[in-house]
Amino acid sequence: MNDIDAWVWWLVAAAALGIPLVVTAMPEFGMFAVGAVAAAVASGLGADLVVQVLVFVVVSVALIAVVRPVAARHRAQQPQLASGVDALKGRQAVVTERVDGSGGRIKLAGEIWSARALDTGRSFEPGEEVDVVEIDGATAVIM
After folding, report:
1. 3-state secondary structure 36-68
2. Most buried among 36, 62, 78, 92, using CB within 10 Å?
3. What is the CA radius of gyration of the chain?
4. Within 13 A of 53's CA, how many CA atoms are on the CB side?
5. Are 105 and 114 in contact (CB under 8 A)?
6. Which of 102, 97, 107 is nearest to 132 (CA)?
7. From CA 137, how far away is CA 92, in angstroms rounded?
8. What b/e sequence results for 87-115 when a residue is b if at least 16 CB atoms lie within 10 Å of its CB, and e otherwise?
9. How would CATH label the architecture of 84-142?
10. pLDDT digits 0-9 by tens, 47-101
11. What's the rounded Cα separation, in Å, for the pair 62 and 78?
């Protein structure tokens, strides 16, 4: 065991920390792996074991303290530009065939869509402007 340099053990630790990173998709393991690589570099430069462990701890904690909040902010942000069916929610449409709780047709974004009324007791006549509340499959729900 003494035949192998400490920097090799740090690289083995980094690789071992990379395995749960891939399996669990927890980025913290990757940050610990980077800390182990930093400790391997410190070992390769001749630092003693105490300095190597301090480098590992400082780099790992710094990465967790800096990267995690940034990643959480990015994960919580909604996309700036809505696309697909999300872009159709809230838009106005024109009724082309009578729409009630059981169905009908509207013209939405230049295309004819099947539609149904959100309030099943309400009906909309051709020519009326309506608001799209949601898209359910290939059917627009209007009010």
Report:
1. HHHHHHHHHCCCCHHHHHHHHHHHHHHHHHHHH
2. 36
3. 29
4. 3
5. yes
6. 107
7. 18
8. ebeeeebebbeebeeeebbbebeeeebeb
9. Beta Barrel (2.40)
10. 999 999 999 999 999 999 999 888 888 888 876 777 778 888 889 999 999 999 8
11. 27
- Name the residue among 143, 139, 142, 135 with its Cα closest to residue 85: 135
Local structure of residue 120 (DSSP, 8 states): T
CB 103 within 8 A of CB 140: no
Domain boundaries, the chain: 6-76, 84-142
Q: By the 8 A CB rule, do 37 and 14 touch? A: yes
Q: Check if the beta carbon of residue 119 is closer than 8 Å to that of residue 101.
A: yes
The residue assigned the tokens 């009908």 is: 104
The backbone torsions φ and ψ at residue 26, rounded to the nearest 5 degrees and listed phi first, read -100, 110
pTM over 0.70: no
Helix (H) or strand (E) holding 107: strand 103-108
Indicate the pairing of strand 139-142 with strand 129-136.
antiparallel
